[in-house]
Design goal:
18 strands; elongated; 5-stranded antiparallel β-sheet; 4 domains; OB fold (Dihydrolipoamide Acetyltransferase, E2P); mainly beta
Length: 277
């Protein structure tokens, strides 16, 4: 197994004025430049480093942390385009290449794209791709309704946000189910709404039921206390304003404040709610 493109703890074979030579196993000896060494090292010590290929295609170590490792997704900005592809800033001095045949859609200089890093078998290079179809799990999804899942926002479509579910399958969050600002590359928690017969997956961000309303009620109470006991959002307030303040629908907001009212915690007005004295 190659350590290239990952963070590993390696043992020091030798230390010189130029840097340290580390045991990179199947990569052979890996060089760590002296300007990357923040404390004294001796042969036999261990150190955590990220391993990549330098401009001479030699395995090199750095103590810097890139924005993503091989097998991970990240939102990266294109610094330069040339005849072989796009070079993206991933936090290291040497940029990472996204070959033209791995660009879907075609990238442009100065723009940021969600990409996955992979190890190219032919060249041995660490590369980036936004052609996610090659990484998606081709097996039939086995999610259950209301199962909690981790999501990465991959893009926008005519009907909603396209998301990666557990980095394994595509799903969609319909626009009318979105009550918070969302952007490509964002990571968030969601819930499976439905797995359709054709394998397409509908995802929601709010779990239906009183559990969600209870969480929202706590959030409303915290804001009331922080705002001196009054919030200018009542039973008749604009749904868009409620969405902006609490990242939820007006229906959920009304259920939550109704529950707080029944507990004797607040008074509800048309355009405001107040903590009871």
């Amino acid at each position: 197994m190659s350590y290239l493109g990952t963070t590993q703890t390696l043992f020091v074979n030798e230390v010189s004025n130029e840097g340290a030579y580390l045991d990179g196993h199947d990569l052979g000896e890996v060089f760590l430049p002296s300007n990357e060494i923040k404390y004294e090292l001796e042969a036999g010590d261990s150190i955590s480093v990220f391993i990549f290929l330098d401009n001479a295609n030699l395995a090199t170590a750095t103590t810097k942390k890139p924005l993503a490792q091989v097998g991970e997704y990240a939102l990266l900005r294109v610094k330069e385009m040339n005849s072989i592809g796009a070079f993206l800033d991933w936090g290291l001095e040497k940029d990472v290449l996204a070959p033209f045949n791995e660009q879907k859609p075609r990238m442009q200089e100065g723009y940021s794209y969600l990409v996955r890093l992979y190890l190219d078998n032919a060249s041995g290079r660490i590369c980036a791709s936004n052609n996610f179809n090659r990484f998606i799990n081709k097996t039939e999804p086995e999610y259950t309704p209301l199962q909690e899942v981790q999501l990465i926002v991959a893009g926008k479509t005519d009907i909603g946000y396209k998301v990666l579910i557990e980095e394994a399958h595509y799903g969609v969050i319909f626009y009318n189910m979105v009550f918070k600002n969302m952007f490509v590359g964002q990571r968030l928690t969601g819930f499976i709404q439905k797995v359709r017969e054709d394998g397409k997956i509908d995802v929601i961000l709010e779990k239906p039921g009183m559990g969600k309303v209870s969480d929202l009620g706590e959030k409303i109470m915290d804001k009331l206390k922080a705002e001196g006991g009054v919030i200018a959002l009542g039973d008749k307030s604009d749904p868009e304003v409620i969405k902006k303040v609490f990242s939820t629908s007006k229906a959920n907001y009304k259920k939550a404040i109704g529950g707080l009212f029944k507990q004797g915690l607040i008074d509800i007005e048309a355009k405001a709610i107040r903590l009871k004295a």
